[in-house]
Amino acid sequence: MKRFLTALSLCLLVGMPVQADALNDGIAAYEDQDYAAAKVHWEQAQADTGPAGAWAHYYLGILHEHGLGVDKDQEAARERYKRVYDQFSGFLLADAQKLQALDELPADAVHRYGMIEMEIGLEMDGSDNDQKRYRASDRIQGARVALDIAGFFQSAESFYQNAIISEQGLGRRFVTNKSLAWAQYTLAAQLGHRDAQTQADRLAADMTRAKMKEARGQYESYAKYVRPPFMKP
Q1: DSSP 68
Q2: Would you say 113 and 146 are in contact if contact means Cβ atoms under 8 Å apart?
Q3: Domain boundaries in the chain?
Q4: pLDDT digit string (tens) for 168-181?
């Protein structure tokens, strides 16, 4: 199946507030393109129960996703990203102190987890196996939730990808929702995605007044969860 999601650039968020020597040693090795050494350092750091461990899983996921110093392994990458995702998923309505703590975690891992889940779900949806097709909807919906969560933690690309999913109704059990897509494109634009405003304007040009009212309502329901809150469009 043709991959619908845009490729992610490979980058490391150096300078985040993590203190574990093994994590930072891994980052230094990665920058020197010594991926085998980076893997060793990050495998040492993964045992940390704080932010250092989460970042280590994230970086190890990147190595597996892109085949850097290891065999390219989508499932291994997914499992690494999921370890970080599990730390995010229960905190959307948490108190300010907990939300502040989550600033120390790599939200991009949640985005990457959602992207992989979506690709797997779409592959299952196109399968000749009835059981795979039946389970595909759960994978696709789970991917959409993960992308929402990443968006709430200021991932512009996550809102943009969810807008594509909403607009196209990807997955045989899902329908198109252009009002939701407009809201998601708008949020992506406000977070800095360079193409999102063009897509939001394209949808708005064909919307009735009633549909635009619905779209703004969708925007309001999403924007209140994004940190920090936005001005209204």
Answers
A1: S
A2: yes
A3: 73-223
A4: 988 777 889 999 99
What is the tens place of the pLDDT at every residue in 35-62?
A: 999 999 999 999 887 788 999 999 999 9
Distance in angstroms (rounded) separating the CA atoms of residues 65 and 86: 19
* Phi–psi pair at 34, nearest 5 degrees: -95, 80
Gap between the Cα atoms of 5 and 167, Å rounded: 14
DSSP 227: S
Q: Are 161 and 8 in contact (CB under 8 A)?
A: no
> What is the C-alpha to C-alpha distance for residues 102 and 99, in angstroms, rounded to an integer?
5
Report how far Cα 127 is from the mean position of its chain's Cα atoms: 25
Contact predicate 156/193, CB 8 Å: yes
> What is the three-class DSSP state of 93?
coil
